[in-house]
Amino acid sequence: MRKPLKHWLALSGTLLALSAQANTELTVYTALEAEDLKKYAERFNQAHPDISIKWVRDSTGIITARLLAEKDNPRADAVWGLAGTSLMLLQKEGLLQGYAPKGVEALAPLYRDSQNPPQWVGMDAWMAAICFNTVEAKKHNLTPPQSWQDLTKPEYQNHIVMPHPASSGTGYLDVSAWLQTFGQDKGWAYMDGLHQNIKSYTHSGSKPCKMAASGEAAIGISFAFRGAREKENGAPLELIFPQEGLGWEMEAAAIIKGSKHSAAAQTLMDWVVSKPANELYNEGYAIVAMPGVAKPVKYFPAEPEKLLIKNDFAWAAQNRDSILTQWQSRYEGKAEAQ
Amino acid sequence: MKLTATAAHAPFTLPLSARQREKLFWALLMLLALAAFALLLLGPLYSLLSKSVADGSGQFVGLANFNAYLAGGGIQRGLSHSLWIASSSMLIVVSLAFACAWALTRTRLPLRGVIKALLMLPILAPSLLPALSLIYLFGEQGIFKSWLGDTSIYGPLGIVLGSCFWTFPHALMILLTAMSHADARHYEAADVLRASAWRTFFTVTLPNARYGLVSAAFVVFILVFTDFGVPKVIGGNYEVLATDIYKQVIGQQKFEMGAVISVLLLLPALLAFVADRWVQRRQAASVTARAVPYSPKTNRRRDLTGALLLSPVLGFILLVVGMAIYASLVRYWPYNLDLTLRNYEFGRMDGGGWSAYANSLTLASLTLLVGTSVVFFNAWLSERTPQPKPLLALFQLCSLLPLAVPGLTLGLAYIFFFNHPANPLNGLYGGMAILVMCTVAHFYSVAHLTALTSLKQLDQEFEAVGQSLRASRWRMLRQVTLPLSAPTLLDIALYLFVNAMTTVSAVIFLYGPDTALAAVAVLNMDEAGDTAPAAAMAVTIMATCLLAKGVHCLLSLWLTRHTQHWRGRA
Question: Of A140, B369, B435, B540, which has the maximum CB count within 10 A?
């Protein structure tokens, strides 16, 4: 029993070594949904069967922290599916390798780094949304809110959960979007009002929608993709896209500087901006980087682009520390009093 | 291997007497143990600490980060919350664990083995499990929500309940070890002196368990103080220091601030170290070479008291575990309560699926093998061989230090240290070896304390007798100490296996493309909104650990039958 096994192992080891020559293994860091990974790799392999993708997947915050911590000795060859703001942060730290993928011109200008060659390319956009639990609403006699301002009405007191902006990128996305749409003073006044109704601040961006889906809260400030997924699974949710405009963020891809497989990483980038790739993104996201590709997605609004605010990512990144400090001094001390 | 290398050197060094040579030999072994600590713990921590006095770009800034953090004002709130949570959990857990340990070792209740196994259940589950379960029980949609009145489970109440649940077995394990080696002669003496049951309790039982009580208290305190999992999931708006690390490192990628808070979290470890030294100086062996193992006599009233003490704890644990299992079988809580096994088809969710589970098994088995041998050998070295005082003190500090290092911090420290281009070991990064090293280091302290408590209760006279019989210390170790400690070894092995199966925080930065882990998959599935599959994977992990526990029980039983005869009177 033992001997044949050994032989078998030796044999398979040789086979692996042989196939490795023909096959490049690319280590790709990602924050994509876990169940989508297989699909993404398969589609890519239909075009490039000679490159196999080794995924390292985790939440946005952890993947970003990990890439930064590995800065002196990078382990990833590429990143495919990470928040645009995270990639901008990595760019600032000098971790990214510029490369102009074939056909990158076909992407909307907003969805590619302005440097030449671009250091990152966008894939799709995800946007803020309110997850509203209709069963709990009936129980507590709540009317569906139509706008961000509606959320400050006294009827919603203690029914709203939102992500903590210092813990979650989604949380900061909301805060910076409100400050951009309403202006500094009105933005903070809005959050003062909202804070009165907040039941709790969560540490992850998808949690509020999950809490709304399972009835732990009636209203969760989260993002559309998560809401659509929960609805698909049978949650009694209504997705609300406030009329004042939605904060949004893109998913993006890049090559990590120092990759030992840069040729394969470039092949990946070429595919990442291609039309089939954009069609793939469109299966879960209503807005994709290549204009004219997107078809409507279930549970999303018909013309999602029109709802997005003009998001100034550079401003949001620059002012992050001061905004978070102010946010924490305003709401954290009071938070426990409730 | 270590042995031959050092032993070959010893005879050719200085013209020393045999005694001195022997001392030198043991001290060298101890230095080797310390070198391992330097590699697995001190090196990584140093890399991290140097971050705490540098700015984001690596420039040395002295204590500026500390000043910035202290001035931020978060510290007072976070610190007072952390202290409050940790001390109340400590009081609750230690009193309950002591009561249960007493009931298990001093009564003749039937099914004690089964009860003990059930009480250890929480340690078998990933910490996400009680948090999810408490929400199903007492959350907005919880079946017992009305019990709480206006109090919300999201907040201090939830954190304390969750923390008590997962730290209880840690305390119970230490206290059971402390109390199971009782000397029957003390009780006989008390009997002869017609001491009342209470007096016996206060003059015999309690003093004997003293060392265990103190150990259990600071283990629980520090576990709760540094844990971020439970507060993250069920803490609501109640900010504690450990979640602050999460906010700084994961939320804002400010490693230097994360390092600052880690340094602040390390302080309790130093306190614990002082406390431990202080108590230890007063600890005398309670099982002497002449000891006779205690076995309680039939006493209906005492058994009844034991049953009363055990039932509420047992009830709570079964409730929490049962709820998690039920939730993993429900199609969509709370709106569709049909039962289904669909959540166990991990292939559908990916997230690592079954290969992650296989990786976890490998990690747990390797941690068990490496960890148990290293921990026990080191504890024996420090307790049973002549060692210079300074080395011993350093060793004690090193072996308690991991307890104070939050997993998230240790994981980051490992990246900084092992992934440094100048580190010759950087090839280990991303593989299974570094996961094993990190896990052993992470869970070293409790295993060490367990080994130490057990070794302390074996009289030093054993060694003295051994020496006079010209039996070498190795032989004493093999023929006396190891067999005597076999049950403890099994406990340590189980502890390490189980923790390696369930740990998340330290390994989350360290796993590579081929080494995804099951407990991380639980976290990822929960984050992705697949709560029920997450619960299902958590239950699968628990079932695996339960199986390990079953093997542990059989082995213990076999051991008691075959090697522990000497404990009973012929």
Answer: B435
Burial of A94 (0-12, 13-18, 19+ CB in 10 A): exposed
Question: B149 or A138: whose pLDDT is higher?
Answer: A138
Q: Does A68 contact B139 at a Cβ distance shorter than 8 Å? A: no
Q: Could you say which of A169, A210, A335 has the minimum Cβ distance to residue B529? A: A210
pLDDT of res. A333? 61
Mean local confidence (pLDDT), B160-189: 86
Average pLDDT over residues A94-109: 95
The enclosing domain of A264 has a CATH number of: 3.40.190.10
Number of Cβ pairs closer than 8 Å across A and B?
A: 143
Is the predicted ipTM greater than 0.90, yes or no? no
Buried b (16+ CB within 10 A) or exposed e, A17-32: eeeeeeebebbbbbbb
pLDDT bracket for residue B2 (50, 70, 90): very low
Q: How many domains does chain A have?
A: 2
Among A100-104, A179-183, B3-7, B490-494, which is the least confidently predicted range?
B3-7
Say which range, A317-326, B8-17, B265-274, B287-296, has the weakest mean pLDDT: B8-17
**For B253, nearest residue in chain A (alpha carbons):** A65
Do the domain assignments include residue A4? no
* Peptide bond connecting A117 to the previous residue in cis, omega within 30 degrees of 0: yes
Query: Check: CATH 1.10.8.10 for B26-567?
Result: no
B513 with A229: Cβ contact below 8 A: no
pLDDT at B293 (0 to 100): 73
Cis before B334 (ω within 30): yes
The 10 Å CB-count burial string (b at 16+, else e) for A57-71 is bbbbbbbbbbbbbbb
Is A235 in Cβ contact with B252 (below 8 Å)? no
Identify which of B154, B415, B528 has the shortest CB distance to residue A69.
B415
DSSP β-ladder status, A287-288 and A121-133: antiparallel
Give the strand pairing for B336-339 and B330-332.
Answer: antiparallel
Q: At what angle do helices B255-282 and B43-52 cross, to 10 degrees?
A: 130
Domain co-membership, A233 together with A134:
yes
Residue ranges covered by each domain of chain B: 26-567
Residues of B in contact with A136 (CB under 8 A): 140
What is the percentage of chain B residues whose pLDDT exceeds 70?
91
- DSSP 8-state secondary structure symbol assigned to residue B293: B
What pLDDT, on a 0 to 100 scale, did the predictor assign at position B36? 93
**Closest to A55 (Cβ–Cβ): which among B430, B508, B513?**
B513
Spatial neighbors of B236 by CB under 8 A, at least 6 apart, are: A200, B152, B154, B155, B158
Name which residue leads in pLDDT, B115 or B250: B115
Same domain membership, residue A140 and residue A252: no
Which domain does A316 fall in, by range?
126-247+309-335
Residue B283's pLDDT is 60
Asked if A66 and A191 sit in the same domain, the reply is no
Distance from CA of B286 to the nearest CA of A (A): 48
Show residues of chain B in contact with A73, CB under 8 Å.
419-421, 426, 429
> Quick check: A216 and B348 CB within 8 A?
no
Mutate one of B76, B153, B237, B426 to test the A interface: name it (highest A CB count within 10 A): B237
Contacts of B512 in chain A (CB under 8 A): 56, 75
Residue A15 lies in a domain: no
Same domain, A109 and A254: yes
Report the percent of chain B where pLDDT is more than 90: 27
Do A56 and B512 lie within an 8 Å CB cutoff?
Answer: yes
Q: Are A94 and A222 within one domain?
A: no
